[in-house]
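Example 3.
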Amino acid sequence: MKPEGKKRIWAEYQKEIPDDHFFYVRSCIRQTFFAGSEQYFLKILREDLGKDVYEDPRHTTCTGIGYHGDVVPFETIQTVVARHFALATEAGYRHIAISCVTSFGIYSEILETWKHFPETLERTREDLYKATGRTFEVPETISHTSDIIYKFREEIARKAKYNLVDAATGKPLKVVEHIGCHYSKMFPKYGVGGAEFPHVLVGMVESWGGDIIDYPERRHCCGFGFRQYLVQANRGYSLFASRKKFESMEPYRPDMIIANCPGCTMFMDRWQYTIKEIDGITYGAEGHGIPVLTYEEVAGLVLGYDPWELGLQYHNVQSLPLLRKMGIKADPERRFLDRDGSRLPEPANLIDG
Amino acid sequence: MNSDLFVIPFNLGLYFILIYSVVRSVAWFRSLSRPDKLRLQRGFFGRPFMDSLREIFMESLLHRKIFRKNPVLGYMHMSLAFGWFLLIVFGTIEADFFGEKHLNPPSHAIFFRWFNPEHGAEGLARIYNVWMDFLLAFILSGLLLAVIKRFTPRMMGMKKTTRHTWTDRLALTSLWLIFPSRLLAESFTCGAHGSGSFLTGNLGSALASFLPAAEIAPWFWWLYSISLGTFFFMLPISRYFHIPVELFLIFMRNSGITTGDRHSSYTEVQTHACSSCGVCISVCQMSYAAGINDIQSAYFIKGLRNDRDISAITANCLMCGRCEEVCPVGIELGPMRLIERRQGERADRTLSLPERYSVMRKRSVTEKVPTQSYGYLVREEPEKAEVLFFAGCMTHLTPSVIAAMKRIMESAGVKYRFMDEKGGVCCGRPLMLAGRDREARELINHNSDIIWKSGAKILVTSCPICYKVFRESYYLEATVMHHSEFINLLIEEGSLRLGYLHRKVVYHDPCELGRGSGIYEEPRAVISYVAELLEASQERSMSLCCGGSLGNLTLASGKKAMIAADAARILTMSSPDELITACPLCKKTFVQATKTKVSDIAELVAAALPAPSKRVARRRSARATVRANDAG
Amino acid sequence: MKTVPKHVLVAGGGVAGMEAAGALAEMGYRVTLVEKGDDPGGHLLQWHALFPDRRPADEVRSYLRKRAGHHNINIITRTTVEKVRHHPGGVRVILSGGTEEEADAVIVATGFDLFDAHRKEEYGYGIYDNVITSVDLEAMFNRGRLEKADGTVPSRIGLIHCVGSRDEKVNNNHCSKVCCVTAVKQAIEIRQMLPSCEVFCFYMDMRMYGPYYEELYRESQEVHNVNFIRGKVSEASVNINNRLVIKVEDTLAGRPLKMELDIMVLMVGMEMAESGAKLAEASGFRQGINRFLESGDHHYGNNLSGIKGVFYAGTCTAPMNITDTISHARAAVAETVRYLKA
Amino acid sequence: MEDLYSRLMQDVRFEEGLKACMNCGICTAICPAAEYYHYDPRRIVDLVQTRNNNIIKELLKSETIWYCGQCMSCKTRCPRGNTPGMVIMALRKLSQELGYFTSSEKGRQQFAIKRTVGDNVLKHGYCIVSYDVDPEVHPEQGPAWEHYYNHLDASLARLGGELNGSEGPTRLIPGEVLDELKRIFEVTGGHDLYDAIEDASEKKAEEMGMEFKKEGRDFEYYRHVVSADSGCHQCEPEDVRREVYETRR
Amino acid sequence: MMSATGANKFGFAINRSRMIDYDSSDRKVREYITSREPSFRLCFACGGCTATCTAGQHTSFNLRRMNTYIRRGEIEPLREEVTRCMLCGKCLLVCPRGVNTRNVVAVAAEAIRKLERNEL
């Protein structure tokens, strides 16, 4: 492998990521399953980096899962997204920060469609006005929140309390990156580093001391497949795709998986549990499983935040061995607490070392 | 040296072969099926026995068939077989008549000269001696030819001869030594005693003039006896076993036993009855047109006899039937090959000879390949029709033949239904040719069902491959006709009005129609009705295969083309305007092989139909449409 | 009075340029051959053997060298033609470095550039050690050693057709014509060099348009047992054993297929030469949608530039094989001579 | 019958997604669905490109258009700039509009998606809400989720959120916002599509003799569509092949 | 790589991979057929055989695709395919490369039988 080849490609896909003043839109999946990630994204940006991130409580789902589940028409989702643009316009923001990769893909698709078929933009303006009386301006930039963390990765590295290295040996951790399909496969220029060798997570991992593993099924979909997961009978598809990835990465003995898509994070975590239940197979060194972390969680760990405040315990694959390896002292006893701080009974069957 | 001891090798050999033959015959008889046993028993006391004797005399001794094909080869075989026979007969008479006593043991006749060295000096014996010398010379002349054939087969008009196993070689050597050693033994004996006739006498005195004849003679009597003994011992395990077995075969055949579809003692007898004469090799187009010289029937039978893996040989045959046509022993080579194809490869090569045959006989016909499955075929409900026309798979590749048949039948006012107009099901013959009868039966049942349900009285097909299987393997009420027969019938009935085409044509007998089904005259009658029919140098039962045969599973396309080119060249030697065949496969094959126009007999007849006036044509096509709609 | 021979400048010293220059020189014209590289010869310099007969490329090279070595030819190397302009007295030519030349006619033979395989990112050229181009493979043939980057002997090689051709994603919708037959030729050469090495060609259509091409294709199957899989390779990656893993649809089976390769050869196509494109832009030559030079008439005037005294020869107009390039150059010479004599 | 191809061409995604296909198979090569189902996006695009009404109708009724997981990997690579995934989306939409989707097992599942994600959007303003992901129905979510779900308030609070609060993750979407969403659905045809799915599904339920309810998920037809699996999704059904063959002939 | 699993407690089944994994496929059948019928190599997948096929008019039997399966070492789909042919031989007459198509089927059937008996 010649690393200079990848650098050459990364150099060609440098998208514009704004410095400040973001209009934040949440992700249905991330806020439901990884609420800590969204909270810490805002916290890191606002508190650690001192950025202005605005969230309008009136923004809703983009309806993206419904759209890719084929029950929501394109015209409808365009108008829903246009409503978010209207909220941003009303608040005076021109840069959208999108938490969800499905949403990010939809925003990109809509912007591209409007570019190629201007009549669709006009129709959307009309529809939105007819439905809500709102008007909007097309935002200047859209960024996925991982783009923004990527942009400030060196700053985070400078403030790092922990690095992605084995604290005992000083060797870099072996990290598998997984990019949500809709991040840049549809429109390579919207992604940092393009579609084939995206740099968005690689950049973070390398800045924070880790090593990226390039394994054969690196680009393969996690298997969400929208209707393929949403309908019980189809879930084999979803599991099948993730399992293909695990088996491909397994020989490299990765310490963790980092993903920028909330869905992928969830599936790759959940399916490890399911595979263990069905086939009795646990991936990862000594059967500890391979922890699947969001980039916000990784950034949070690097900045020294409490892993249990980040929500690592709500993954089926627990990160205890990883935390130990990184030298992070985290008390396993304090994982599952009630509102009053008292310990809750620990769930059985978690994958932990 | 005790002079009488030398008869021991001969006696041992003779009694061995006699006992062996009896035992083997009994074994064969016992393993026959019940009906075949009955046939044989009935045959023994009836005409078949007499017929067999006649045939044995004509074929096994005189070799009449080989004589007809190739006089030199015939003479060779005749001189050896008939000559030896006469030598034994007249030797026995000589011993009984001129010897010390009558009813001598066989050795006495065989070694008569040794026991009677002075015999034949005068009178009748002297003349008899001339006769005996003549017989010996007769045999020796044949032997000379055999030696020449062995080393230069071309001189005998044969392109190839079969290769020998070591047992064959040993047997052959001993056979070849018998008569020269007898000649020398007798000559030395005669030389020592001043007896003998023109051959033995003269040679003997010449040899005695410079050699101690009396001392040398016993050595040659020993050689003579050992040669005979060795030959008898080698007989069952060499190709010369055919000599006794052929007699048995002739009798079995004349009793009405046929090959059938699996191995039996009859196939075993046939296997041993082959003399490897090689006639099959020289008529095989695979040999002389395509240069393939290791698959002919003689090799096939030899492989079978020696239980070699002959699956490649078995598959690589056109199944044209030319070899069977000329086989002097009358072995049913086609059915034999099909049996082997049904068996697949032969896996039991570790067994002893008798075990092997018993295994072969028991082996199931269907175990060969993954079972074909035509469960996907949907039963059809055909419309009723007097005449059912089945074009056949191959004919669908020659749509002009179908069009011609439609025109002919419409012109004759035949009410027919086109059974496979929208693509039918294969007739099953190609599967049978591949040795897969059980699977073929599935297709046969499917088609039979349609034919029966249609209530047709006549089933017409354009493809001789289908024709053969319809006739032989379908149980139908309908009369099966090849379209050449059917057209002939229409002409004879007077329902076809035909013009005369001023064309010279040559007719090619398709294998499955001619040799396969015996249809030679009807196509010729039809052709002669509409055009001038030229003769071809090889026709009717010796017609050439076009090379496109479905009988051959493995032949490469290039080789097929070579056979086709050669056949087309021979067929078109008389420069006909058109080469007519009656098989779509032959047509497609010949079209690639010759510049001469190739047509099916139906196309020729259709060309002789009066051109319809426009009004009639319109009406006709309207009628045809209605019919087609009805059929659909 | 002895007339001064007319002067023709040939822009580009590849196959077309050398042939055109040679033909003109032979007819007595004074020729200036401008070549951007160190030596004339063009892409042919990189080739080891030629399709369809696998003759050594050197045979054609020496023919062309002899042709261009004529005493009427003045070869200027390391120079490009920047601009040409017709004026009543002839054609003014501006060369790189600013020097000007005056000619009676100009033949543009700026040729093609090979597609830069880096641009097909998903194949990992320049990233994965054993992803090479057809030119790299030809260099291996020249060295007489066919091996992986680590020096081991490959046991399976895949040749990927249409890299940079027929691909909207890299802005090339045209077919480069010669890659299919090159792949077949190289596949045979691999099989001959390493009989135990499996060779697979991944193709979309086998465009065997030239004489003996189809026969070569047949030979590759029949004699050399080269395998063909119909499908465009989608991506390549490397597994833990440092073998390439490719994904393709076996479109004839209608199923996706995965295969490990030791070496993956990208059959890079032809694009309009950068230098030619610059010249065209400066001089006002028309370029087609495939960016190659668009001639006066596609059927009967494909050497004509539309500018008086300027003619096109060879692959600056379209992808071509050597045979066609030489013919095209000769036709350009005929057009030039007709123009000069008029 | 109306021209289905022109109807598809009205969908901007279709127009964008299909220009001309040369059957190179690059899409199928990396398609997760092609590896799992009897599915070949190349073939679907090729069939659509025939513009044959019968073929397109067969597709709209078939299982095959429902196999795609919309990862859109096909878009990245296509050398002709097509997007089979988008062609599929257009086909699926038309299949639902025309009610053909209930002809196939996988198509009928659209009803379940409408009753879950579809209803969620208008009811809660989210496609997915935590209190709707019942571990009973989603055992594959595993113990971590079960724990989270059973202690929703506490868990969310730990991560700095408030269930149905006024801001932050899983905040309550105000009624007036939901009204805006509903109006958008009315104006842009979202409601029509919902209705089309509901109507055709109800009809199908009746045809199949299954219990059907106008709301919720606790009835036979719903349970059937989410769990039915004929097991015949890996091989080409003979009858489908024959029909396509006949139509082409 | 992946085994098919029946419906489990999670309420769904998992299919086998349909991907042809060339490196784990069994090429013995291909080698057997190529050695017995060398013309097999010559197929360039024009589909003429399939277009004319008698059996193909009644079922999905597809010789062209079968040949592809053989080449890729995919034996499972072959097992059933090979039993559908009627050996009528029409394909032989249309093959532009002179492949002995009929024998390919016959030899393929033989190869599969041998494979089952562990004789390959």
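The longest strand of chain C covers residues 156-163. The interface with chain E takes residues 206, 217-218, 221-222, 225, 227-228, 230, 250, 252-260 of chain C (CB under 8 Å).
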